[in-house]
Design brief:
With 102 residues, this protein is mainly β. The chain is built from no helices and ten strands.
């Protein structure tokens, strides 16, 4: 998976198709990401000693194949490629405009 926390992505499939947001959490073992403002679910919290019970809205993970990275130059969705810079480090680049993501 080529996504990192803080990447701007757009949802390409599902009920939230077309929505944009930033990745807040990456779950590599499950191949899922949590995107800000996408896949909102209501969670019922049990009461405990400090607080009363409540219903909390939170983001739920979506599969990484349902999101694509946004190109910083063209503001369109694109795929991620890898190139080697002058120092010999491997960096993530966009396929549309060949701009660095790191």
């Amino acid at each position: 998976m080529n996504f990192k926390t803080g990447d701007k992505v757009v949802v390409i499939a599902g009920a939230y198709r077309g929505k944009e947001g930033t990745i807040t959490k990456v779950l590599r073992a499950e191949n899922k990401v949590v995107v800000e403002g996408v896949n909102i679910v209501k969670k019922h919290m049990k009461p405990n000693g400090q607080s009363a019970g409540s219903i909390v809205e939170m983001e739920s993970p979506i599969h990484a194949s349902n999101v694509m990275i946004l190109d910083p130059k063209e503001k369109k969705r694109t795929r991620i490629g890898h190139t080697v810079d002058k120092k010999g480090n491997k960096v993530r680049t966009t396929k549309k405009s060949n701009s660095n993501l790191d």
